[in-house]
Amino acid sequence: MKGYIVVFMVLFMASLHAQAYHGKGDVKFQIGANLQQEATGIMASLDYGIGENISVGVASVYLLGVEKVKNLQGEEIVVAEFGDRFDVQARLNANLGSVFNIDENFDVYPGLHLGIKNFGGHVGARYFFSTGFGLFSEVNIPFARYETGALTASEELNNQVTVNVGVSFNL
């Protein structure tokens, strides 16, 4: 997990030379890899600008590679049904690229999300190389989980700190 955070920080720092959010009516589609402890998957998100620096959207994750996990008795098993592998979230972002006034091709967006697994926050950055294509990275952090107490390994999936990296499209 430390390696994923280092990758995010490198991408974030490397992209500090550019803003890619244009305000009300702006639409961004992102697709990429979701990296988390015990699993990797694919993620997609769609954000729609509702104001100069505010966007709302939806994000979804489906975990493809789930490693064996330990149950409460310590036995290694593969327990990841569809409900454990899938998550969908509503998002609210504060697009701060124009606030920092760094460059037209760069956007940094902290935000909140409410999903079927938890309520949490995220911070992301995206850099556009052209008007329609760019790269992004995000870190998602759960603030409050719906399940309380000791979570099984399958309940931890999509319910922990995750990193997303991939491509972003301006629609």
Describe how the helices and strands are arranged:
Blueprint: H1 2-14, E1 27-36, E2 39-49, E3 54-66, E4 69-70, E5 76-77, H2 82-85, E6 86-94, H3 97-100, E7 106-115, E8 118-128, E9 133-145, H4 153-156, E10 162-170
Antiparallel strand pairs: 1-2, 1-10, 2-3, 3-6, 4-5, 6-7, 7-8, 8-9, 9-10
Short description:
This protein is mainly β and 171 residues long. The chain is built from four helices and ten strands.
Order of helices and strands: HEEEEEHEHEEEHE
- Arithmetic mean pLDDT: 84
Structural class of the helices, strands and pairings?
mainly beta
The number of E-state strands comes to: 10
Q: Please report the distance between the alpha carbons of the first and last residues.
A: 32 Å
Our estimate of the beta-strand percent is over 45%
Strand order in the largest sheet: 1-2-3-6-7-8-9-10
Note the main sheet. 8 strands, antiparallel, barrel
Low-confidence stretches: 6-19
The tally of helices reads: 4
Considering DSSP H and I runs of 4 or more, what fraction of the residues is helical?
10-25%
Shape: elongated
> What gyration radius follows from the Cα positions, in whole Å?
16 Å
